[in-house]
Amino acid sequence: MDGTKTEKDGDVKKTEDEVVHLRREINLVSATAFIVGTVVGSGIFIAPKGVLMNSGSVGLSLLVWALCGILSMFGALCYAELGTTFTKSGSHYTYLLETLGPLPAFLRLTTEFVIIRPAVTSYVALAFGRYVVEPFYTPCTAPTVLVKLVSILAVTFVVAVNCWSVTMATRTQVLLTVIKMFALVLIIVPGVIALVKGKTDNFQNGFELDLITLDKLPLAFYNGLYAYGGWFSLNSVTEEVKNPNRTFPLAIISSMVTVTVCYVLVNMAYYTMMTPAELLQSDAVAVTFANRALHGMASVIPFLVALSCLGTLNGGIFGAPRMMFVGAREGHCPPIFSMIHIRRKTPLPAVLLMYPLTVLFLTSGDIYQLINFVSFSRWLFIALATTGMLIHRYRFPLHPRPFKAPVVIIVTFTVVCFFIVGLSLYSDPWNTGWSCGLTLGGVPLYYLTMNSFYLPSRWRRAFNSCSKKLQILLEVVQQEIKTY
Question: What is the pTM of this model?
Answer without folding.
Answer: 0.87
